Amino acid sequence: MNNFFLALKTSFGFLSTIPVGITMEGLDELVKRSYLQTFAGVVLGIMIGVFAYITETVLPDQISAVLIMAFIYYLTGLNHLDGLADFGDGATAHGSLEKKIKALKDVALGIGGVGYAVLTLLALYASISALQAEAIFFSDNAAFILAVSLLVAEIGAKQAMLTIAAFGKPIHEGLGSMVINSTTFPRYVVSFIVGAVASVLAFGSIGVIGYISSIVTAFVILNVSNRHFKGVNGDCVGTSNEIARVIVLIVITLVIIASNNGYGGLVWTLL
């Protein structure tokens, strides 16, 4: 049981800036229980949701959206955004496989990485703003709708990371390969169930749609990674976290738009 709590504590140290401390012993226990990353996503999502609910209640939408973005990266750190930038450098590099992997692992930031990171941040802001605008017509408590949407988005982001890890092949040794090699299918199924149940409890059928969209996103990124790098590393895993968060928010917004326009029954029928 002590090892379980050590892994649980390490999951927050690994996925957030919460100062719980990380040790190699803790990382070893976490990779044996990689499904705990989704549980950490639930807790982090609740914290982001509470923050969003407060700012949405007392501040104008645009200011609230910027503060929510700032809180997301204050809480979860910039490691995954850095991974996305590295992924952008590698994916946009021309030449052989070796040149692409060299660009992927290079610590210097190139124009490809800048482009990927800036576009993703703009997409995150746009998705939050669009959700704010549509939630007003969807519910009398728009702040709550935004909060649970961000919760589902964070759960989906963590499940996307585990999807890449479970179905990807590592291209070199490192922390990323530890997670990839240890995320077996049974552990992935446990994390999938944890994430699905949490998404349903948070936002019902819409939560399920958003959650599934994060997994589809992960498989798309996995396909792109395999085409460019013949496998995945920690940067590819981090990329799935950043992209999936945005995609979940966009999909939830589209579902809400459909419901606002009288197509809500179709959504429930499809489920």
UniProtKB/TrEMBL annotation:
EC code: 2.7.8.26
UniProt GO BP: cobalamin biosynthetic process
Topology in the lipid bilayer: Multi-pass membrane protein
GO molecular function (one): cobalamin 5'-phosphate synthase activity
Highest taxon of the lineage: Archaea
Keyword terms of this UniProt record: Cell membrane, Cobalamin biosynthesis, Magnesium, Membrane, Transferase, Transmembrane, Transmembrane helix
GO CC list: plasma membrane
Protein function: Joins adenosylcobinamide-GDP and alpha-ribazole to generate adenosylcobalamin (Ado-cobalamin). Also synthesizes adenosylcobalamin 5'-phosphate from adenosylcobinamide-GDP and alpha-ribazole 5'-phosphate.
Family: Belongs to the CobS family.
Name the record gives this protein: Adenosylcobinamide-GDP ribazoletransferase
The organism of origin for this protein: Methanococcoides methylutens MM1
Biological classification of the source: Archaea, Methanobacteriati, Methanobacteriota, Stenosarchaea group, Methanomicrobia
Name of the gene encoding the protein in the UniProt record: cobS
